[in-house]
Amino acid sequence: MKDECFNVAYSPPREEGWTRHQENVAKPRFWERTGWSLTRKITCERPLRLRRLRWASPKFSWCRSHPSSRGGECVAIKNVLLLSFALVFAFAVTSAAAQETKPKPDISGFWELRFDSKNIPQALLNSKVTPKDLEAHRQKDLMAIRWCNFLGVPALMEQSPVDIRQGRIEIAIVAQPVSVARHIYTDGRGHVNPDIFDPTTNGNSIGRWEGDTLVVDTIGFAADRGITSIPGGGYKTAATHLTERYRLLNGGKQLSVTFTWEDPNVFAKPHTYEFRYYRADKETNARNWSCDPFDEDRARFLTQSPRE
Amino acid sequence: MRRTIAAILAFFLLSGISWAQRGRSVPDLTGFWERKDAAGSGSFGGIDAKIPKAVLVPGVQTAPPGGPPNPTPAGDATPHKPGDPYIVTNGRCGGGMPFMMGHSAALDIVQTSDEVLIIPEMPGTRHIYMDGRPHPPLNVLEPSTVGHSVGRWEGDTLVVDTIGLLAGGGVPGGGQRSPETHLVERYRVLDGGKQMSVTFTWQDPKIYAKPHTYEYIYYKDPPDTYALEEWCDSSDPLQKQSIVPPEQRR
Asked: Residues 149 to 208 of B: which have CB under 8 A from any A CB?
């Protein structure tokens, strides 16, 4: 009887080394392969075949017909099966719902730069960019600091720590010095029409997830505001396009951000560098750096050569 | 049949529990919010006039209402009369508290379980820590324009406690603030999420004879709203501005 029981259709998992073609050939008994004894108990050595269940019938066919089955056992079995179905169905429904909001990596937290956080190669600039252009931007950046102007991207991303908060429709990045927070919209919207967008120091950023990587696309930089120089060389213009890729590393202890700058007016080829931020202590409190543009001593310090 | 009914009930019970756990959440304040005066006030002064006057401890000077945190020289406590010019900005940029909460530009709220950010279109983002941490001791807390804020949910209300603000005026209703001053805000979503009420209560036994409370109503902006940047450059002479209050029409 036991051998007959196991000669019915059964598809063992492939990892057991069996295929469907071997279904009806001799194979070890089910409990010898799996250690399960449930089949013996509930089906009287008959394998469980769900298609035999007749839900409209007052009793399942195999309970009624099998001579060795007992009424009380069948009732208990039915209860177990019904509850199991309910559990599986409920789990499936809630799992499907959970899939709709498949969790993405959470990059929220305070992130700090350390001495080994930056890998910045020299940018290959367009031949039209002259040393005079670069010096003009350097001087302009100095004045932006002196007058407490908004830093903007990319200088904002060079601050430490930065507070990144991943919300429902956007990811915000906040630095401590004088600067407006970055808004990275992740709700699927496109860029604001450049015809109506008033360029800003941070530009207009939209983000999307590619697997575990957050890809951020930014345009709309104000060429004449804030710090415009780019690490490694070059500077922002109205035509600049920045692509950032955010990835958690080392179990979430680090955050890699690669910055790729493209601007045919400035770069001969896309300029890429990487920062690796370290996750700061969870209890970190943001500080709000004050900046007084009318502090004459500060102004002298920033604009005059140091005295020996 | 009874078993079938029991199974169906078990399914709904389990599903319900699961959904309840997934859906057990606090109100979502996410989005852009604009403070508006639906009834109309006619002027900035008119808006301020709707705020209850702060009852101050005897000897504490009433500060001029509204404006940025550093708009006027210390001691300028006289009411601004029509025709009398007064400084609205001394060239310094930035907003901070409580000016930013009354500003006409939209505030962007980014809400996570550990922290809520309130982002203005100028520097001075507020960090409201929701992870249960306390305020740092005042002797180590460096006062700032936004102070140090911790929040908790009381039912559907977000309660935010802030200390560590820079000393000065600018409190609507004519109040003052110091690093020791507690500002308690209560955020509630109204009208199915279209509006948000924020009540502000200033408490400081050295300044206020009794807690000073007022309310702002914010309106939710469309979901595709994006942030602007309120550019400000202190090197621009025009940044130093005065204003002459006009005669008010009643």
From this structure: none
pLDDT surpassing 80 at residue B123: yes
User: In chain A, positions 216-255, which contact chain B (CB-CB < 8 Å)?
Assistant: 222, 225
Nearest to B121 among A178, A180, A185 (CB): A180
The pLDDT score that the predictor gives to residue B174 is 85
pTM score of the predicted model: 0.75
User: Would you call A148 and B228 a contact, using CB atoms and an 8 Å cutoff?
Assistant: no
Q: Mapping DSSP to helix (H, G, I), strand (E, B) and coil, where does residue B204 land? A: coil
- Interface check for A287 against chain B (CB to CB < 8 A): the answer is yes
pLDDT tens digits along B98-112: 989 988 899 999 999
Partner-chain contact B31 A169, CB within 8 Å: yes
Of B175, B147, B174, the residue nearest B161 (C-alpha): B147
- Other Cβ atoms less than 10 A from the Cβ of B175: the count is 27
- Tens of pLDDT, residue by residue over B34-59, are 998 777 777 666 777 788 999 999 88
**Taking Cα atoms as reference points, which of B243, B162, B117 lies closest to residue A165?**
B117
- What is the separation of C-alpha B15 from the centre of its chain, rounded to a whole number of angstroms? 39
Q: In this complex, do A180 and B108 lie within 8 Å of one another by their Cβ atoms?
A: no
Give me the DSSP letters along A110-142.
EEE--TT-EE-PPP-B-TT--HHHHHHHHHHHH
Backbone angles phi, psi at B235, to 5 degrees: -80, -10
Tell me how long chain A is.
308
Complex ipTM: 0.82
Alpha carbon distance A252, B46 (integer Å) = 51
Burial B85-121 (b: 16+ CB within 10 A, else e): ebebbbbbbbbbbbbbbbbebbbbbbbbeebbbbbbb
Q: Which residue, chain included where needed, has tokens 């900035």?
A: B44
Contacting residues of A for B8, CB less than 8 Å apart: 86
